[in-house]
Structure formats: structure tokens, C-alpha cells
TrEMBL record:
InterPro entries: DTD-like_sf (IPR023509), Threonyl-tRNA_syn_edit_dom_arc (IPR015011). One of its GO terms (cellular component) is cytoplasm. GO terms for molecular function: ATP binding; threonine-tRNA ligase activity; zinc ion binding. The lineage of its organism: Archaea, Methanobacteriati, Methanobacteriota, Stenosarchaea group, Methanomicrobia. Residues 1-136 form the Threonyl-tRNA synthetase editing domain. Signal peptide: none annotated. This is Threonyl-tRNA synthetase. Pfam families: tRNA-Thr_ED.
Length: 136
């Protein structure tokens, strides 16, 4: 799994086109202000180490939220951080589990629609920790 994390003044997105046919049709536009944003890439090797990947992801995301002093996060599936890709079904399951576990810890979580290309705009702060990459 790859995590590209940002401390953002805002993250705006608008669903553009569906990439997985059997998903429900979603038209969604949203702007989330003063948030952490994480681009998540789930890799094929994550399928055999599911529980460790989820545990490490949660630990890294909680660490990052603490470092940038945020209580909300945007989870955005971004399958462009590695050439290794899990199945879409597995990636969707992992994102859903991460969403649930973060919410159970009192964190406000916004998840962009899985299986969609979205146009987006992000304002990333300038500090060093405003941009962090983690490989799990």
C-alpha cells in the first residue's frame, strides 16, 4: 500500500466518469475545508497481508492527523502510485475498512466515490509535513 498524505486548506472534487460499470451511478461534488487528504493505492501484495496493511495504514493516518493537528481526513483511491494493483473489489474493501476504523476512533472521514475518475482541486500547505509519502 502507498499513502500520499497532504495537509490541505481544502479539497474539492466532482465525480467525472465511472470506471467500473457495475457500480451505482453517483454524481457528487464536495468541498472539504481544513483537512488532511490521503491518496491511497492498494497493491496486489496487500491481498495476502490484509490485517497488517490495515493496521499499519490506520497507525500512519492517525500519526499524520496528529502531526498536522487535524480531526478530519479525505480518503481518495488513487491507483497511480505503483504499477502493482490489487483487484478493484479488494481495494474497495480496504478503503471501506479504513473508513470504518477511523470513524470508530472519532475521526471525521470523507471518502470520494470508488471507481470514478474525479476532477479535483487541492490546496496543500507549504510546511514540510504538509506532504508525506508512506509505503506500507
Amino acid at each position: 500500500m502507498k499513502l500520499l498524505m497532504f495537509d490541505a486548506g481544502y479539497f474539492w472534487f466532482n465525480t467525472y466518469s465511472k470506471t467500473i460499470e457495475n457500480l451505482e451511478d453517483i454524481e457528487r461534488k464536495e468541498k472539504i475545508e481544513n483537512t488532511a487528504v490521503v491518496f491511497i493505492h492498494v497493491e496486489s501484495e496487500d491481498e495476502i497481508r490484509k490485517s497488517n496493511v490495515i493496521k499499519s495504514a490506520i497507525g500512519n493516518l492517525k500519526w499524520y492527523l496528529n502531526k498536522v493537528n487535524k480531526d478530519k481526513i479525505v480518503l481518495h483511491s488513487f491507483a497511480h502510485l505503483s504499477s502493482s494493483k490489487s483487484s478493484p473489489e479488494f481495494a474497495m474493501e480496504i478503503l471501506s475498512l479504513i473508513d470504518e476504523k477511523l470513524k470508530s476512533k472519532g475521526i471525521n472521514v470523507y471518502t470520494t466515490p470508488f471507481g470514478y475518475f474525479s476532477e479535483f482541486s487541492i490546496h496543500v500547505r507549504g510546511e514540510s509535513l504538509a506532504k508525506v509519502f508512506k509505503e506500507i
